[in-house]
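ok, trying the design again with the full structure, not the truncated one.
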């Protein structure tokens, strides 16, 4: 019952969030958004991409936590039989769900590309900021330097990856409206 309740709660949260990202089923009365078609709001096409992606992410997190706990027990030579079962179950569930999660991630990326084209540029900006902060702080600590090194690597990767996507989009051509 708890799992069903939390799944339904997550669905309604995703319906609300998807409506805020891609609003449908409303009219504007006196400058206020007023729902006029709850079916379109509840069954927004974006919900059916984002909700499974989020739910699979939660299941994958659980699978990796179970597998990691089993691996921890094996390393500590405790609960040997249970640890093997935990490790196998977690890794099997992850092996089944990861390809499905990748597919829904692709569909979510298509939605972002369609409805939020500026988002990749914000990711590039965040990567450049992270890179600058990491470059500044990595020389000020020895104990935590590895965190700043990885932040620098991650920020550099994000920035260059998005720059590559942007150049690729420019080479393919920008969409025109009315021949302009």
């Amino acid at each position: 019952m708890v799992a069903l309740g939390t799944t339904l709660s997550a669905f309604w949260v995703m319906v609300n969030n998807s409506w805020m990202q891609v609003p449908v089923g409303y009219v504007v009365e006196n400058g206020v958004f007023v729902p006029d078609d709850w079916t379109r709001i509840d069954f927004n096409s974006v919900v059916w991409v984002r909700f499974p992606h989020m739910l699979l992410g939660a299941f994958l997190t659980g699978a990796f936590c179970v597998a990691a706990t089993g691996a921890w027990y094996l390393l500590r030579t405790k609960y040997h039989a249970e640890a093997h079962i935990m490790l196998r179950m977690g890794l099997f569930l992850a092996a089944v769900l990861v390809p499905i999660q990748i597919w829904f991630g692709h569909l979510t990326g298509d939605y972002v590309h369609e409805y939020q084209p500026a988002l990749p540029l914000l990711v590039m900006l965040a990567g450049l900021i992270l890179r600058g902060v990491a470059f500044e702080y990595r020389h000020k600590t020895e104990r935590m330097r590895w965190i700043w090194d990885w932040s620098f690597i991650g920020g550099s990767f994000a920035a260059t990856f998005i720059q590559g996507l942007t150049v690729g989009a420019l080479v393919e051509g920008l969409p025109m409206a009315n021949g302009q």
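Keeping the full-length input from now on. The chain has a mean pLDDT of 84.
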